[in-house]
Amino acid sequence: MSKLVKxxxxxxxxxxxxxxxxxxxxxxxxxxxxxGAGFFAxxxxxxxxxxxxxxxxxxxxxxxxxIVNGSADGNVTDIRFFLQLAAGGAPVDMQKVIxxxxxxxxxTTYQYANVSHTWYQDGVNKTDMNELLExxxxxxxVIPGENDAGTLPVIEPNDRFTVEVKPDVGARLxxxxxAPPDLKASHKYEVY
Length: 192
Prior knowledge:
Elements: H1 9-56, E1 60-62, E2 66-70, E3 76-85, E4 92-93, E5 98-102, E6 107-111, E7 116-121, E8 124-126, E9 132-133, E10 137-143, E11 146-147, E12 150-151, E13 160-166, E14 173-178, E15 188-191
Antiparallel strand pairs: 1-3, 2-3, 2-15, 3-10, 4-9, 5-6, 5-13, 7-8, 7-10, 11-12, 13-14
């Protein structure tokens, strides 16, 4: 009679294959989770950088000179300048822009509705604008000496003054100038 001997060599190979496959599956799932977390973190970092750059850069820029008008009493009666969209900037809703005029002694804040504005597209005056400053458009802003919003701070000859343009998104645009040494009624002066 023959004696049967138990041989478990094949079974051990099968167990090793199952364990190996389990390790591979676990490693694949783990790597998928890690890659997903990495892609998410990279996307969030990119979003934060893009938002930071958009908020740190100015949305509008000065286009041309700043002009002041003289009065009979030797003060500035209004300030006028052109704004355009900054290079690569997103369109700016001008109705949300705030203008602040300040001197060493006083400060007045104006909403967009309280300043005079004339729109130009490619250098041509436009009357049907949508109040959204876009590419190839400029808007002339005239900050009046007196209106419903208040009175322009007294700017005498040689006074330093700042006009700060504050869009709802992006950095503020400060315009620092010095009034001319002599101001005559109804004369316009370019200031530096």
